[in-house]
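Progress against Task 2.4 (sequence-to-structure conversion) is shown through the following example record, which the project officer requested during the mid-term review.
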Amino acid sequence: MITNSNPSLGRLASLPLELRDQVWAFLSIQSRLALLRTSRQLYTEGSPVFYKDVDLQFNIEPRYEYKSWLHVGSSFEARWALQSLGQAITRGFDQIRFERIREIRINIEAPNKDDPGQLIYLQKKCMHLAELLERAQHGLPHLELHLMTSETGEWGSESEPQSSIAPFGDAILTNDYEIVLHAFCRLRNARSANVCVPAGYDKHHYFVEDLADSLTWKEPFGTILSPQDPNTWNDEELEEETHDILMSLDLSLDLLPGHTANLMRLDRYSQWYTEKLGGDS
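Structure tokens generated for the chain above:
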């Protein structure tokens, strides 16, 4: 039996690799995490065992909170409150080896139809999360997207999807959950994927099924083109749809009533003022 005599492993080095793997598996996740921080060799050997039992959960709420983007939980009881995509990158979330962990679950709470700005705020948060996950260079683990009922909102009633904002022009996506899920269409190379929407939306299942399938494709976004078949997934058309959705939502924000829309307009004005003051525009 071959053993590793690397001194940085300490007494673990006297055990065969198969037994060392059993030691790692026996330890609690917290103990594994502590050991991984002791040396590079221990991290190299133990990280695959550690990551395979790790789940991450991203919780996205539609309610407006100043300098609040989303909350992240984990199976090893760590919690993070992230203010923005920029802060997530600064804290190294874009460097996580997502493909090594067991699962990513994304919980998306329903917006309040009486506060339609929540849909825009929610879609913006989802776009930024998709941008973070798109940075994963080695793929994604099993991916779960869940549309959740919130304290003040549902995704629909009597099997009819909710539409918080009237569509502009020839908009293809008109209901809340398709607009929100559309933000994740750019993600690819997940080990497996599941998209869970409220029961009863059978006549809208095609979009959900296509999205779940596309999340597992190996080809990067922008390479799936089917110009001859309008019923086939087409990245180029999806890119155009994304642009149309963002333009429609941005135009809608100008006149939308409600608390969230008011605060988002204030944020937008503040950003414009700051950029002009800094000479950026």
